[in-house]
Amino acid sequence: xxxxxxKALALQIQAELKEEVIRLKDAGKRVPHLVAVLVxxxxxxxxxxxxxxxxxxxxxxxSTLHHLEEETTEEELMQLIESLNNxxxxxxxxxxxxxPRHIDATKVTLAIRPEKDVDGFHPTNFGRMTxxxxxxxxxxxxxxxxMLRRYDISTSGKxxxxxxRSNIVGRPISIMLSAKGDxxxxxxxxxxxxxxxxxxxxxQADIVIAAIGIxxxxxxxxxxxxxxxxxxxxxxxxxxxxxxxxRLTGDVDFEAVADRCSFIxxxxxxxxxxxxxxxxxxTWKAYSGEVY
Length: 292
Ligand code: GUN
Hints:
The protein is an alpha/beta fold. The chain is built from ten helices and eleven strands.
């Protein structure tokens, strides 16, 4: 079994980008600028956004955080988006999800200019990605693809099961893995809450991407000997022995499953750091005009 060290890989990619930023600075050029918008005080969201800002600092990007209060109206948020859309000093921006219930997340996603949509959530980017056109790819699936590429894990012709069909992870990773290329060229099955024979289907897969948000859902009987397991879950479970009162755990029962796998990602330190890095890579692409 080989552990996929997402944290180390993320730091390596960030170090590569830092070199590029140093070259820009030496040439007296402007550096890329990412803006993050956070509404309210969801503790997980605060932590994710903090990591995004910290990673920007690490690579030498400019970053700005707009932390708005929970009571912010949809109109106020839409005004901020409009100003970011029109600000030539902002290369890309993202609005952290979930949003408070009184704000329509779809309306917000649609309001972000596709050219600045470094999260890749706008239907224009999603559609372009689906058709293999230049696009911003959503950060988590993009981070997973980069991880597979850099670990030389071939997916061509492999049977891949994706657990979960969210717009953020399950749906887009299923499209990317079945697209032409390697990673890619996989035969993908998307399983969800209405699927039958989930355990049997997982047990036949060469690669399992677990993105359903249920702690320790994937058990040894669902893992083929030698399978590749990518754990996207970031579940907070109570742990009185920790100062915070909780710890993070994945959608995979890592301890029970690891021995059966050829490769497996840990939680934390697997997919999470790669998600942040993919956002940084997209900001670089927005800055350098690689997509639009
Ligand atoms: N919430 C969970 N993951 C993400 C993400 O990648 N981007 C945004 N904007 N919100 C999220």
